[in-house]
## 1
Amino acid sequence: MNWIIKQLQKHQALFEKISRNIYLQAIKDGFLAAMPIILFSSIFIMLTNVLPLVGVHLPADLNAWFNKIYNYTMGFVGFYVSGTTAKALTNSMNAKMKGGRFINNTSTMMAAMVGFMLLAIGTTSKGNYLPSYFGTEGILSAFVSAFVTVNVYRFCISRDLTIKMPKEVPGVISQNFRDIIPFGMSTLVFAGIDAGVRAWEHVPFSALISTLFAPFFKGAETYPGMMLIWFLIPMFWFLGIHGPSVVKPVIESALFGNTVSNLNLFKAGKFPYHALTENFGNFVGELGGTGATFIVPILFILFMKSKQLKAIGVASVVPVMFAVNEPLLFGAPVILNPYFFVPFVLAPVVNVVIGKFFIDMQWMRGFMYVNSWALPGPIGAFIDTNFQWTALLLEGILLVVDAVIYMPFLKAYDATLVAQEAKVDAEDAAKEAAGEAIPAGVAVAGAAAGAVTGPAPVTASVADDNVATATVTADNTDDKATDQKLAHEVKVLVLCAGGGTSEQLANALTDGAKKYHEPIVAAAGAYGSQADILPNYDMVILAPQVRTYYEDLKADTDKLGIKLVATKGQQYIALTRDPEKAINFVMENLEDDGAAATTPAN
């Protein structure tokens, strides 16, 4: 097992490079920006489909109004995503621009939307727009329009192919003229592509892309295809790389397109048979978060004897139910721990096989809505199948199966921790008998260190000081929050992959600021959505799963004079649990940077 991990470690740099690819990031961030539209629209489509199940029939006009809201939100999501993806890619591209030049992200957003219309939308003989590809069916056109637009702008601006105005002309007006040439060139490129494809195949570009990629989508929804997808996602996460960011952008169009297709089949009285949908991954393959960890904290609490695992179980059981499993991943630790590799990658694979079998046998409908990934799995699956009881049956079976898969490995790991904790307790008892003082936190740190340095040397080498050093640091933090005060307000932005983990530290900072009367204002966000709001903050803290983006973000924070801090696994968990430690962490990093003065407390 250690040999497998060593082989994966050899390619860790490649995997991190893939996850940091600006085009994959742009796809992820483009969808992230559009999620409010997607989630909000789902409310209305559910109202028109759920209420009749309980005998409530809406008036025809009200039902039509609900459908109109859905059609103009989710029904246009391809159009919206073309703009948000272009904006996200522009922000990443600007970090690579030289000579003080930059690309106007508002202009690229509009140009990409124009490009999307040219590539995806057809018209009737009377000139009316055809609605076929405005929504998820046009997602691939959205990505193409975004990528081509930004690269045309980069080509023009890096070569100074712009209209220059006299320096007396206001900056806003000058910028408009500078964007005319790249905007015009990108529009002409799309017009040319559209004309060529229609002359060749007599279909919009979106239809051509769908035809070319149809074999891939078909293969992705087979048992081997889905097993591969939900093997790769936890495998990347096991290496400390956010797996969904690497894998899901490739299948994003299929995930959302199949969801809409399932809904249309259901509304037409047919069986929704697609298994490869967005929420199927969230509530089946990633039940409780990547690695299908919903049941793991419960197993820790009920069956493990180690103090460490029981404590981690208690601390993580509620977050994991809502798919925020970083406290578990970095607290146990699961990441790069040989004891967890097999169940962590195997449980999701088994889950999707069982879930797809349920759908293929028509025991359960395919998921037809896009709900928040943070819904507890059983609730999310029940809603997504339009309240079908067999979804709850499936979730119950998955929890039992996952428990069976994880249990042998957990027991083996627990036995090593129990032995190490007994050894530490014996050493402490001997020291106490000899009259030696035991430093605060050493017992806990020793047990945690043993978890990675004793039976799992590979974990120790990669986990760095995630457990041992971070725990000692957290336990020995000076109580500066009680004897020092910040001289001015400090705004802190915490970033993680999806927004759930960052919320935990932001809440701890908010609680600590109130308790110790420190002028600290904290907010949480997802990495990739920070470009527009970054200038509003004095410090940015990266959660462990996005620390690989440190160098990418540092270029932006350095320009703005913002302090950037990357955290490690258990260090981050310790900060989220203790508001005082969180406040001290911010103050210490500001002092080290000279970014904020402190004054003695009254």
Note: The mean pLDDT is 80.
## 2
Amino acid sequence: MRNRPARGVAAAVALVVLACPGVSFAESPGTATGPVHASVRLDPRPMVGGGSVPAHFVGFSVEWSLIERYMGPTARPAFANLLGNLGTGVLRIGGSSQDVMPFDATAVNTNEVITPEDLADIRATLDAANADHIAGDGTPNWGVILGTAMSPPTAQRPWRVPEHARAFVTQGVGPAFAGADEDVAAVSLGNEPDLSYRYDLQQYLGDFAAFSGANATRPYPIVTPNTSEPIAPWTSIANRSVETRFFWDWPAILDATAPATKANAGAFGAWAADHFYPLARTCATDPYRCPTIPALLSDERSANFNYQVYTHANEAARRGLGYRVEELNTAAGRGAHGVSDVAASAVWALDTMFNAACPQPPHAPSVNAECGTGAIGVNFHNAEVRAFFHPEEGNGYYNAINFDPSAAMGAPTPAPEYYALLLFARLAQGTTGLRPMPVAVNAPQGGQVKAWRVDGGASERRAFLINKGDQPVSLDVAAPGATYEIDRMTPDDPSGAGRTLDAPGVRIDGRVVSADGSWPGFQPTVGTAEAGHFQVTLGAGEAVVVTLHGHDG
């Protein structure tokens, strides 16, 4: 399956329709047979302008404490297949663990220290995922971001100094990736410095100057600042009525870090990094953080994300940098049971990837209608359920890929979110002409719908239709006369109780990933448009991808 491109991606035009509560548009008539809740029109002509969904857009983030669980000898074959199913991407190794786990070239390999053995496991995993090795742009199919500590030293952790980062690179990364240096997309310095530096910008910038002055990451690219922000409405961040940590310090941070970042850019380019969580596992002191499915799928949480991505991607672009959301998931604190580990997380993940690629800023509607500003990629985070160094206790609820917590450390398995990444990577990643599209709402269910499109060749058009609501939606698609294929991502409730958004599983075309991590392939159904229209019914919590063939565009 590795290096096999998404069916039709090189010459596809994609329309994405995302069900989203509270959205309404001007009404237009639908002509399909039966009740129609909403309608969209797909212009057969290639769009002029628009953005893109870059190669390597999708990715995962894994804590250092879980290397053996995902990439050890018994876990590696399945994990490499799970990466290979997506075609291209970026794997990030880091998170808070990179600031609490030292690198030691001579230590016995345990969950509490980073060793050359860990780096060798990562290299072996990428070798397996990159069996055919080269993506269409000349880069490896999968690259890796390797995180090391940059945080104020303490009596318990005095090793958090430039010399430690230099040893990590020279004694760990360099030997492990000899002959495959291009696989290392970047070395990340520190994690969430807004928290580790207690909002002390000058101390953070001083330490960055010391680390960069010591060439701590050379010869590998550097990425910063990996900042986080409070879970709060975008309006409160905009008017600064909440503690914004380093949000408004990005111009000063990038002025200080961009020169060093660009001076040593590698095959994957140079970028600045950010984190985002719409909810939190704990919310006793702040009800706004509380995790529920309606909150996760709400327009408001999407608006918060769009505001952050648009604002920071713009700041990065002004300094010649890309922008990547290197740590992303449903709820901070390792997710929330019943929200992060159910089908709703797949719906949210698919929505969020398109919003990352083309954020629509709530404070400036339509300013980014052609998707000129956006992220170059996202990394969905994976961690232990409670605390570092205790993987035997189980998986974080938000994990997109679940590790084996037993002593066997066997094959990792896909969670609901993984299927959203699979659908996006194989059928949207690498396309151009990305734009949002209007949706005509004819009934309350139709108010759950949004639309996007991307352009490719003249002989195909592709539509992603996602129902984020808890009721079926009937959608009329106006399009040139054509045959079409339909792939469906559907909630899977093996209990037979009929759960949808809260179902524990997800399938695509009725299929699941095999036990060895390989994907058996899509199995679309086929239909024919009549008089330039066809109707698609979306079940609750269901995503449909429509690929049109044979139009005259």
Note: The longest strand covers residues 483-492.
## 3
Amino acid sequence: MTYRWNYSTLTTDQKNKKNELAKELNLHPVLAELLIKRGIETKEKAIAFLYPKLKELHDPFLLPDMDVAIRRIERALGNKERILIYGDYDVDGTTAVSLVYKFFRGITSNIDYYIPDRYDEGYGISFQGIDYAVETGVKLIISLDCGIKAVSKVAYAKEKGIDFIICDHHMPDDQLPDAVAVVDAKRLDSTYPYSDLSGCGVGFKLVHAFSQRNGYPFSDIEPLLDLVAVSIASDIVPLTGENRILMYHGLKQLNSNPSFGLRGIIEICGLQRKHITVNDIVFKIGPRINASGRMMNGKEAVDLMIENDMTSAREKSKNIDKYNEDRRELDKKITDEAIAYIDNHIDIIQQKSIVIYNETWHKGIVGIVASRLTEKYYRPAVVLTKSGEMISGSARSVPGFDVYKAIESCRDILENFGGHTYAAGLTLREENLQAFTERFNMLSFDGVEARMMLPQITVDAEISLSQITPALINGLDLFNPFGPENENPIFLTREVYDAGNSRLVGKESRHIKLEIVDKTTDRPFPGIAFSQHNFYQRIKAGLPVDICYTIEENRHGANSFTQLIIRDIKE
């Protein structure tokens, strides 16, 4: 794959600020440059970023309607009303339900939870879910990670004598549901200082507000941060602001004393003796939780995450792991079918987006397939399948193209839609499929520039190999956890040479195990360049190449070594 390297040097003003930061905080100059590139230009902001503290979390009562929500919950508890915790079937929704349910079950036994079935009910609040609440005597529903657009459903619940508290993080429509409280930092009238919380993060703010009002110490809710960390990593929200604080301390909880349910998943992933990172959540823990909702019902994921018995947690983790195996098989099968269809029926060179439909595909897998197609073709992709009498599916996008806004522009021919800038879901009638396909392709043709269809690598700093010192390596640890809008820093070094021991490794000798030097040092640096064997002959001939890479500290027990993970090579 050909990458475009995006690198910008600091302005004179930024260089001055970098030097000030490096001096004030006794930082390696490269670390100060990384802070400046992240928009962190003062000593105070740098300290807050490098040393995330829970006391820096915003007052939860700054969220719209939070005060009203807490008063309604207090009234429900005082009147011994039955409460239903309701959430979506993905990782964010199931962790949110688990967190809020775990907290309130310690206060009342008159509580239940509900996860809609992906296939029978679809995304968000359903009439079936409200009917379940009516049948079980519920008087208050607290929805998490969904509900912001459920105007008709909330009205239906109100007719049945049920109040709603909506806790969401998705974009609202012009009309808000007629709920008792709508807690969402993305409301147009919101003045909350941070708008990118995950759905589970909003749930945490709810229990934080309740604890604060009712005299519970923060230490009572701190153990719940392991669930928040899983949601933040899995829902791919920015790792900035409050999310960075919550993720930092959530990872500490996940590594030191996770709940029984998450411990069961950690064990089934083989992570119990390893330091768990954001990548471990994204690629191992999260997909297993998601597999429950994709293959069966997300309620099983909640059953596991609220489990109080370790033996039961291990058994439930095995079931979820089996769902994940089944999911992987289906994922590969449907992805292969989708690629074959595109290669045979779509002139991808002429298209700036992909809209593909197959009525036999598994509804729970199409989001993953959309991601695979976006990664392969580097274009926005919408993958659709049959869902009852409707067509539904998922969309994924490339940096620079807001797929949610594109889908919102088609709302007049859609039954339902929701999501974020780079990932969205939609439902439509079959007779509108052609019109949607044509309109979405037209919107992408106008909105996707040629540069967006070429994957880019954003370089954080240009350095020489001699600048990779223990001070830099140790300082990079302070930038963790990495994720969206706080990516693992990528460095550029020009004119590196083989130190004599570089060799081809791996299956079909497709990877290069490097030992390299540059003109500033004779000390060889180890590196690995995956799937870049085509540069091997040039490197072994002693010719210079430019590399961009991340710096990784590999830990094996008491031993550790620094390795460069080569992202791309250019002559």
Note: The two ends are 15 Å apart (CA to CA).
